[in-house]
Sequence to fold (337 residues):
Amino acid sequence: MRLMVTGGAGFIGSNFIRLLRRERPDWRILNVDALTYAGNLENLAGLERDPNYDFVRADVADPAGLRAALDDEVDAIVHFAAESHVDRSIEDASAFLRTNVIGTQVLLDLARERGLGRFVHVSTDEVYGSLGAEGLFREDTPLAPNSPYSASKASSDLLVRAAVETHGLDAVITRCSNNYGPYQFPEKLIPLMIANALEDRKLPVYGSGLNVRDWIWVEDHCRGVLLALEKGKKGEVYNFGGRSEMTNIAVVEAILAQLGKPSSLITHVEDRKGHDLRYAIDCGKAERELGFGRSIGFEEGLARTIAWYRDHEDWWRRIRSGAYRDYYARHYGEDLA
Ligand code: NAD
Ligand code: TYD
Fold:
């Protein structure tokens, strides 16, 4: 198998490539990534000399660059590349439309042109919108995205559906809940709160902190994507979740407790615009049809994540001392210096 992975220098993509190196060592991987602010080749350190791993810097929304990157031997694509942060999409949606919508269509066209065997589109539960106190997202829940990010992902899901229906492309869509674990960019809730707590900074919780997310250990999501690649049925959607619903405030309290830091670090800040109240996933279809299941629960995953961020202070300190500082100052009105 020669597999092209887009967005492999990001959080989930790099964990996926590392999983493949361990579990499918004979596969040849082509990682195509534009290396935006969120892409970091340090996430793949050690793979440079692996003869079964190649990296090409290219933008998925640029057909010429992508055509040059995709060699004749590629059999399948797993598409992670995206702009992924809701708050940035609220600030400016343009990069989200370009990468998530146009980029996905460019890849679909290329997959068709080359007659590729399989296309796995990695999407999110956020395309379903927001739940009240009850209920779960199922694969047939109507799409009702509320943020520019989730609207761009829903658009890309519809383009994948159209490629299956119109052109017969062998594609599957996966929709996963909130991931956490090593190599997550420290703008997302869990790594941001760990890094701030380690530095005794304030932990900015949006609004009441009673919004609920379902948390999944990143490697469990990656195993789901691999199952979808190998066992998924053409045109199907598979939900993945961690069966770990938590309010944001409970997540932050758990981080503080594991780090032995005081709750007084928590500060409630202005709520996110259009803040989805609750995400919760029914992943029964993936369990039954793919053999998907989480391997660890939230407490253990959080302990592993905290250990990783403690052991890799250089990694996140380098990020926080660079361009991310400008975003932080703009968004939270505070300098990370
Ligand atoms: P990330 O922001 O950490 O990484 C995104 C990667 O895509 C980066 O390496 C970046 O350089 C690359 N990229 C961005 N624009 C590109 C372009 N135009 N061309 C090529 N590469 C480009 O994101 P992540 O958290 O790893 O998410 C990966 C995928 O999983 C996304 O599609 C996201 O929507 C989906 N997803 C994420 C979560 C989550 O909790 N993080 C949950 C469900 C689904
Ligand atoms: P995030 O990690 O951005 O993921 P998503 O918005 O895709 O679910 O945010 C997770 C939850 O944490 C979400 O309800 C927003 C909240 N949040 C905060 O309260 N403070 C923060 O500084 C951030 C980044 C997020």
